[in-house]
Amino acid sequence: MSHTASTQHRPVTPARRTAMRPQAGARRHGIGFGLVAFAFLTAMAFSTVPTPLYPLYMARDGFSTFMVTVVFAVYAVGVVVSLLLAGHVSDWVGRKKILLPALALELLAAVLFLTGTALPVLLAARFITGLGVGMITATATAHLQELHAAHRPQASTQRFELVSTGANIGGLGVGALVAGLLAQFVAVPLHTPYLVFAVLLVLALVAVALAPETVEEQFVRPSYRPQRISLDHGDRAGYLVAAAGAFASFAVFGLFTSVAPGFVAGSLHHPSRALAGAIVFMVFGGAATAQSLTSRLSTAAKSRLGQAAQAVGVVTLVAGMHTADLAAFLAGGVIAGIGAGVLFKASLGTVAALAVPEHRGEALAGLFLIAYLGLTLPAIGIGVATLGFSSVTVMTWFAGILLAVLAVLALSGRRASAR
Predict the structure, then answer these.
(1) Same domain, 196 and 79
(2) Residue-level pLDDT at 369
């Protein structure tokens, strides 16, 4: 018998079993990393499924642009409520005990979307979707980071950063793209996308259930309290500038996930649902790609690049609306999305550097609260304005206000550098 054969049949001694455990555990965490990434991507994608469908709701049930923004705003309210009440609880009870109920909430929302198109149903479904997303974002990101560290303890965090960014920001684009394609080429466009994602959410629940837990539950838990929010972290002016950058970034994201598909279908006369989904995908895809490619830039450089790209993108987008040029509108949207993604990453980096570790959660909670106000308030303002003015006029106002905010940010950045 050869040496190879004898090695293959050698008994597994206790010493060999102990040596094999870390390798088996690492492999299990590596599989778990992929499972949680799939669930994270699915959850974020589901949140933008209605985006390319809004023009259909407007045509079928007579919803105005203002009503679409109300439906969208209810989602943002759900996200903020969930972030404040449950976004931090997984540190005590474990990641899976938050992720599983969050995915169940999204599945419930998908079922509600399937039951009808009446306004109360849409409002309830979007609010529940927001609750689920608010629970998932921070929890899934932390879970991925811990699974990556357990799988590849000596590796850099680049893999984790790429995957978490792709699942989070990229997922928002994927959901709109898939929904738009299904609505365009498959029967029953207001039901089929939700049915497909209901199946995917069931698979996501199974994936998270199979993934390993990375937080040991605390049997003596701290007294529950909502996530604290603080805007004062040593450099109040620096924090407020970062928060303003987050507000401006999410204003662009809110535009493209609420009223932009209606603008394309109405003002630009391109009613294709596939096109509406593709536009959102390009905006968020550009944001995610830019965040990954600019990881080595300094925070100040990211901020300057993001501000410049957003300014150029928004001006190009509005020019495309004035000339009814779809290509210019698309180019402006992609450039603005790139700028928004980079500027938001710079804001996150600034706040993470300003806050001491024991108050970092409070600092980030404040940042996300202001960011989601940016997601909601401009979209509602645009919806209200369209009740009395044309879409092109309203978008021109939006661009002017956003450019003024970006100019203030640039000036504040120069003053900070001089100091």
Answers:
(1) yes
(2) 83
Q: How far apart are CA 282 and CA 276, in angstroms?
A: 10
Residue-wise pLDDT for 185-229, tens only, equals 998 999 999 999 999 999 999 999 999 998 876 666 677 777 776
Contacts with 107 (C-beta within 8 Å, 6 or more apart), sequence order: 198, 201, 202, 205
The boundaries of the domain holding residue 199 are 26-213
Domain count, the chain: 2
For 383, residues 6+ apart whose C-beta sits below 8 A from its C-beta are 64, 65, 66, 67, 68, 69, 70, 258, 259
Distance in angstroms (rounded) separating the CA atoms of residues 353 and 117: 45
Angle at alpha carbon of residue 41, lines to 383 and 198, rounded to 5°: 80
Backbone CA torsion sign across 43, 230, 370, 340: negative
**CA–CA dist 134, 106 (Å, integer):** 11
Query: Structure pTM?
Result: 0.84
What whole-number distance in Å separates Cα of residue 292 and Cα of residue 215?
Answer: 28
* Residue 228 CA: distances (Å) to CA of 89, 196, 238, 372: 12, 37, 20, 16
- For 236-294, the pLDDT digits (tens) are 778 888 889 999 999 999 888 888 888 888 778 888 889 999 999 999 999 999 988 99
Helix, strand or coil, per DSSP, at residue 403? helix
CB-based burial of residue 292 (10 Å sphere; 0-12 exposed, 13-18 middle, 19+ buried)? middle
DSSP letter for each residue of 8-46 = HT----HHHHHHHHHHHHHHHHHHHHHHHHHHHHHHHHH
**In a shared domain, residues 390 and 284:** yes
Indicate if the alpha-carbon torsion angle 105, 135, 86, 28 is positive or negative.
positive
Domain end among 213, 243, 271: 213
Q: Is 287 left (phi over 0), alpha (psi -120 to 50) or beta?
A: alpha
